[in-house]
Amino acid sequence: MPGKPIWYDRINEIHDALERSKAPVLDRAAIERLFGLKRRQAINLMARFKGFLSGRHWLVHRQNVLDELVRIAHEPGYGRQIRARRKLSSYVEEVKARRVEFARPIAAPTENLVVKGEKLPAGVYCPRPGQMVLEYASVDALLAEINALAMAAVNDFAGFSEAVLGEEREP
């Protein structure tokens, strides 16, 4: 079953705005503004509300729109749809907040790192092939070391390979 239109959770707001309006009919531009739709969507919605063409302009009786909004609001699935959408929205906001909470900037080396011969950056050494040890004081320092190693490998793969494995490798 397709999801309900985004304006479903604004039905009461739209209804109140139409109640305050004195216009007997609404044109396509008014439907676009009220419902937050684009041109084609507004025309399709106006057809649902028993809209009609007057010359070259789509119009719909304000009362038809009000009646349809009341009918939609009283459908059995309407409340469930609104609750589901609000629950999803709150979950998305929670995930966004947590993402920001856990986001950490990683210090990037300012110089262009190149591994010279068998010399790795300070705090990094390879006791034997296949094993690398990184010394760090904090998680941020560890991430900065990993970042520096990756940049050194990109900038001078042959030198990095020689330093790590003790042998020359093809780039």
Number of strands: 5
State the helicity in percent bands: 40-55%
Average pLDDT, to the nearest integer? 81
How would you describe the oligomerization state of the chains in this entry?
Answer: single chain
Protein architecture, described:
With 171 residues, the protein is mainly alpha-helical. It has helices spanning 11-20, 28-35, 39-48, 62-73, 76-102, 139-155, 157-165, and strands at residues 25-27, 52-54, 57-61, 124-128, 131-134. It contains seven helices and five strands. The protein has a three-stranded antiparallel β-sheet with strand order 1-3-2. Strands 4-5 form a two-stranded antiparallel ribbon. Helix 6 (139-155) packs across helix 7 (157-165). It is elongated, with a radius of gyration of 31 Å.
Quick description:
The protein is mostly helical and 171 residues long.
Pick out its properties.
171 residues, mainly alpha, two-stranded antiparallel sheet, 5 strands
List the helices and strands and how they pair.
Layout: H1 11-20, E1 25-27, H2 28-35, H3 39-48, E2 52-54, E3 57-61, H4 62-73, H5 76-102, E4 124-128, E5 131-134, H6 139-155, H7 157-165
Helix pairs in contact: 1-4, 2-3, 6-7
